[in-house]
Amino acid sequence: MITLTIDNKTVEVVKGSTVLEAAKKLKIDIPTLCYDSRMKPHGACRLCIVEIEGMRRPVTSCTTPAEQGMAVTTTSAHLERLRKTTVELLLSDHPNDCMVCIRAGSCTLQELAYKYGIRENRFGGAMRDHNRVDENPFIMREQNKCVLCGLCVRVCEEVQGVSAIGYAGRGFEAKICSPFEHDLNCEFCGQCVSVCPTGALSAKMWAGHPRHEGVELTETTCTYCGCGCNITLHSLGNEITRVSSRTDNHNRGWLCVKGRFGYEFINSEDRLTTPLIRREKGGALEPASWEEAISLVVDKFSAIKEKHGADALGGLASARCTNEENYMFQKLFRSAIGTNNVDHCARY
Amino acid sequence: MNREITVNVCMGTGGIAAGGEQVMKALKQEFEAAGIKNAKIMENCKLHKVGCRGFCARDVLVDVTIDGETSTYQYIEEKMVKRLVQDHVVGGKPITEWLVGDDYHTFHEKQTKIVLHDLGKIDPESIDEYLGVDGYKAAQKVVAEMTPEEVIKTIKDSGLRGRGGGGFPAGVKWAFCAANESDQRYIICNADEGDPGAFMDRSVIEGNPHAVIEGMIIGAYAIGSSLGYVYIRAEYPLAVDRLHTALNAARERGYLGEKLFGTDFNFDIKVKLGAGAFVCGEETALIASIEGERGMPRAKPPFPANKGLWGKPTIINNVETFANVPPIINKGADWFASIGSEKSKGTKVIALTGKIRNTGLIEIPMGMTLKEIIYDIGGGIEGDKLFKAVQTGGPSGGCIPQQYIDLPVHYEGLQSVGSMMGSGGMVVLDETDCMVAIAKFFLTFTQEESCGKCVPCRIGTKRLLEILTRITEGEGRKGDIELLQQLAEDVRDSSLCGLGMSAPNPVISTIKYFRHEYEAHINQKKCPSKTCNKLLTFFIREHQCVGCGMCIRACAVNAITGEKKQPHHIDQDKCIKCGSCFDACKFNAVLKE
């Protein structure tokens, strides 16, 4: 363990921790924009700078390893001046359209602008023009709002293992794009959307729905597969408008394309809400009650078993079921029906 | 008559650019032609390809040595070769009007050459010639007779500091790296020289590549590394070629590869070409580039000596630093420490450019004053104009005004006046240089070369440049100087890497020493140096105009009118202030104010 002091408070952290992690342990708030504890530190936004005794100049706390006996100061007139200038510079190259931005209210840059009270900007000047037509079904890109925090690049490489996102250009014209500006080779998992601190990346299907007003949040579990990722449904009345996932759950906020974007079936008119039974040969499928449907299956299964034996029956379970559900399923087939003919779709 | 004849032709990049290859070819032809008449001359005649000797302004330089008598010729062109061979080589009479003057000798006499010692004397493509000047003796001594600790102690005692800009003591850095437990350590030579106007590292690799390789072998032995890299710009094709030639020759002789000098020490060097990004000269960006990542710097700490290439302890030193190592081993730490000043030992190679008579590559003992460099070695200001300032350290450095002309040039001296040693660029400015425009020039460069990773550098340098641009265009606002100062300080203090930290230096130093020029641009809308065209008005002085029409032809917007042999006139509404008429007029009739 390592002991250091931050703002005159002593804290003990494991070796290998960063100064920022140590500060978090003390519940000291240091502003960040490019930091995400789930990824490697980047040190680009320069907001988490701190002063450390014996170091010539401020260093970023997210990248600096904590060391025994370090004396850290997280706030001073000088640090706050530098942070304010950084936010002001970011805003000088950022569209001033928070009113209509899909991220308003959940935008880190907006919060920083508010925190530092930046009403007027000393650095008006040229702004980037990188918005381009981008045809993909899921992700909305507004590159003029990009702060180049690199979170999308890192999540795609470190978490998703896809590396569909990279950088191009230098200086003021540096931008986020597919590597070498080739065609996008993307899984559309939307991890990048989930980590973007501004309105640069959002989901196309979020557009047109309320951002916060009247939106109800419901914690639940994704039903797409046995992983059981925790998700948060954003709903307005009976309509699901967005799916997100909290970072403090077992899936750490990461979802796949289905979990994050595959929610439209819930409000789909084509969705089955009751069992259907074809009562006459050649007739149409008609809605039925669960009791009626289950009774029918029981009757038919019993008849088959009586006539042809239990091994004439077999069960194929879905990957969307949990382990517990699959356990129950094989129990049903082995104990109740009496056959080992049981399998799972994920084997195919 | 059996005379000993040697002809040396300057074939560095400067020499080749000035026509060295044509001169060489013509020499061969002329010797052949002369050889038909007198075959004995051909027999002893040796055409010798040598590297840069520093005095690029006088290229192509040719030494003709006959029986130990050397005559050095300057500005030699292909068409002059015939007479040179006929009169001097055949006729035995040196052509006095083509010989270099006294200033050529002053240029060299004032210098102390360690790194450049053998440049221009040995053939960089011949390992035997390097061996002839005690080459690889130091590496052999180190590997066969010394412990790594002894090597590090020698380098520490010598006081050698990093020549790439930082000035960090090399021996201390090596010791840090060696102290890390690791299965592999790497040693990297940073040859990604990118400062505008800098050609020190290029010349050293082009002129004496083996010295750099030998320095790397010694460093590798000291830190316990079996693999080194030279990261060199692809835009240096001649240096890259000569480096490869040297590496292959060293491998053939067993100076690289396995079991060096008959010991168990293995070491080899790979060459990695840079794609021309200035920021890749920053050590962490350079490491990222070698790893195949985009050349973006990483935050320090951890420092490369602890966690560098592929996460392993890594030493990165500049070309010149490595080239200093073999002489230190050969002649001893005390010898090296006896040269230079108290805290800056040894010499510094400087690329001397700008408004100066003798531009070129020089090597001075640390502590020599600016005055000695500019007036004694450099021969003073071109065209007898007034000295205004000297910009040191490239785009990362600052401008030093006249009042500090007696300042000693070493790390502390330059830092004390807000500039830096950097990699050793020195641009001399005269009274016609506008300091706001100079700051703008360097910011244009750094702004374009920023990698874009961190906010202060990416957007901050852009905003600095925008403010400077509007000042030079007459759009400067009250408060702009203060705004520039504040932003420059903030960019300096909060940027991620050395590029952003030092990019504001030209702004900070010019405001510090030449604030009045900024004020004149903003308040009076005047450029005191008459450089910023948008702030100038062009007139034709009637009594001096001969009506030749040159300005009319030069004007792209037809703003000038006038009959032949009658005074011309500029229509101020049409004039775009490009300055073409001023340049075109041979009678000083165009006035700019």
TrEMBL record, chain A:
CDD domains: fer2. Keywords: 2Fe-2S, 4Fe-4S, Iron, Iron-sulfur, Metal-binding, Oxidoreductase, Repeat. It comes from the Bacteria. Its cofactor is [2Fe-2S] cluster; [4Fe-4S] cluster. InterPro entries: 2Fe-2S_ferredoxin-like_sf, 2Fe-2S_ferredoxin-type, 4Fe4S_Fe-S-bd, 4Fe4S_Fe_S_CS, Mopterin_OxRdtase, Mopterin_OxRdtase_4Fe-4S_dom, NADH_UbQ_OxRdtase_75kDa_su_CS, NADH_UbQ_OxRdtase_ferredoxin. Residues 78-117 form the 4Fe-4S His(Cys)3-ligated-type domain. GO terms for biological process: ATP synthesis coupled electron transport. PROSITE patterns: 2FE2S_FER_2, 4FE4S_FER_1, 4FE4S_FER_2, 4FE4S_HC3, 4FE4S_MOW_BIS_MGD, COMPLEX1_75K_1. The keyword Iron-sulfur applies. GO terms for cellular component: membrane. The keyword Iron applies. Residues 1-78 form the 2Fe-2S ferredoxin-type domain. GO terms for molecular function: 2 iron, 2 sulfur cluster binding; 4 iron, 4 sulfur cluster binding; metal ion binding; NADH dehydrogenase (ubiquinone) activity; NADH dehydrogenase activity. Pfam families: Fer2_4, Fer4_Nqo3, Molybdop_Fe4S4, Molybdopterin, NADH-G_4Fe-4S_3. Residues 215-270 form the 4Fe-4S Mo/W bis-MGD-type domain. Residues 137-167, 178-206 form the 4Fe-4S ferredoxin-type domain. PANTHER family: FORMATE DEHYDROGENASE H, RESPIRATORY NITRATE REDUCTASE. This is Formate dehydrogenase (NADP) alpha subunit. It comes from Desulfopila aestuarii DSM 18488. The lineage of its organism: Bacteria, Pseudomonadati, Thermodesulfobacteriota, Desulfobulbia, Desulfobulbales.
Automatic annotation (TrEMBL), chain B:
GO terms for molecular function: 4 iron, 4 sulfur cluster binding; FMN binding; metal ion binding; NADH dehydrogenase (ubiquinone) activity. Residues 536-565, 566-593 form the 4Fe-4S ferredoxin-type domain. Keywords: 4Fe-4S, Iron, Iron-sulfur, Metal-binding. InterPro entries: 4Fe4S_Fe-S-bd, NADH-UbQ_OxRdtase_51kDa_CS, Nuo51_FMN-bd, Nuo51_FMN-bd_sf, Nuop51_4Fe4S-bd, Nuop51_4Fe4S-bd_sf, Soluble_ligand-bd, Thioredoxin-like_sf. Gene3D superfamilies: 3.10.20.600, 3.30.70.20, 6.10.250.1450, Glutaredoxin, NADH-ubiquinone oxidoreductase 51kDa subunit, NADH-ubiquinone oxidoreductase 51kDa subunit, iron-sulphur binding domain. It comes from the Bacteria. Belongs to the complex I 51 kDa subunit family. PANTHER family: NADH-QUINONE OXIDOREDUCTASE SUBUNIT F. This is NADH-quinone oxidoreductase subunit F. It comes from Desulfopila aestuarii DSM 18488. The lineage of its organism: Bacteria, Pseudomonadati, Thermodesulfobacteriota, Desulfobulbia, Desulfobulbales.
